[in-house]
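Anyone have tokens for Sugar ABC transporter permease? Sequence:
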Amino acid sequence: MAVHTSSPSLRPGKGTERPGPAPRRIRHPLNSRFWIALAPALVLYTVFTLYPMAQVVLSSVTDSNGFTGDSDFVGLDNFARMFTRDPALLDALGNTGVYAFFRIVVQTVLAFGIAVLLNKKMVGGNVYRATFFAPIVISPVAIVFTWSFMFDPTTGTVNTTLRDLGLGSWAQDWLGDYDLALYSVILVDIWASIGFSVVIFLAGLGTIPSEVLEAARVDGATGWRSLRHITVPLMRPTFGLVLVLAVNGALRAFDTVYLMTKGGPGGATELYMTRVFFEGFVKNHFGYASSMAVVVIVVLIGIAYLQNRFEREMS
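Reply: yep, here.
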């Protein structure tokens, strides 16, 4: 007859205690050290970004001149004036549309084509990459000074080269001709900024798995078909980023145009942001200029929202 006994260690007895729940560690949702480290950046961001933006928004509904404290509330009159009583701004919007087409469409297509070529293994590939990226690190003032000299109708490099090649009839006053000035400025701006788009596209091309391209090649996909049906679809997030940056640059274009032509000749190169500068700091219509700036801010925020939503739907 078997006798069943329990282990003494498992029998509750005198002097034994059941283990209770482990003590909870108190976690502070706001780490003081984190906020102390973040405080300088928050202060700088508030002082130099949030506060000026708030001032612009408040000024957009007044007739402030920006220099005296006197201003009256005008409501949405500044915004109504933009599209109904300011023909100069409408002309600037037309020029901005032409500028945006070249900056967004033409530059994006060129940058992608250059990136595809540079992504191939070639002798001196790094040299070509550095050549396209070099304008990004050059001061805009230096770029404008150099190209203004090259476009000089008398001693400029462009016209001198054309005359030396026997094409003197093609020599033009590139920045003084009403029909050519805008396109000359666009050429300079594309040359100065295309390298950044090329670098972004190169980074996107580097994320495409080589196995996918190799499988397409085995299946008989030619270079063009592989580019169209594999590379481009996989590069959609990269295209979205490049397009958002291009739209941002087109709407905020100012320095190259202002330094080269100041909006001339006869308003041929007047863009939206040069018009904002003229209204705010030349005519002292700071309230009206602020309303124009608010429109740009709203448009840029809307574009960024649409781009983020598109990326979420694609992922």
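The two ends are 71 Å apart (CA to CA).
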